[in-house]
Batch of 2 targets.
Target 1
Amino acid sequence: MKTKNQYIDILAAQLKELSAEIDVLTEKADNAAEQVKQNAAADLEALRAKKAAAIEKMKELEESH
């Protein structure tokens, strides 16, 4: 069973990966045709939602005793 700190570390790594994916997609969207921009926007929204959920979970874990 993972400890709280191990779980926080895993979430932090996932957040870092999600941020990198968001950066890549943002750059692609900035240089892409309109249809691709719309598709990338949907992907970005989904990734940002995942990131927000992970941040919230990490906060809950950090605040728990």
Target 2
Amino acid sequence: MNDTFVLDLNCNYPEWRLIEGAGIPRAWHSSCVLHGCKLIVSTGCADSGLLVGHPFHLNLSDQRLIWTEIPGVWTPPPRPDHVGISLSGGRILVFAGSDRVSLCGEHQMFPGTLQYMLGK
């Protein structure tokens, strides 16, 4: 699936809104929120079974709600089954994951941590 929905609970009659353009469809990714309004989606596995490594962000405070790829000189190795958490100062910590898509087979675990930086 490659769809994103936003539910605005500030309306008298809340309703779901579809946000398009989320980049490559992915599963087994991580997501977190920075600065209270930027949804970050990191790595994972594409529908084709290939691992994807580029992160995207969605600024939830913008009315247009457009997915944007986060540019960078270096991108961490793609990985499914990892954890991403937001830290202070516009940083994201990415921890562990595996190097294979097969959830039933053997995994090579990534024991380290990585950090993305995203300004305010």
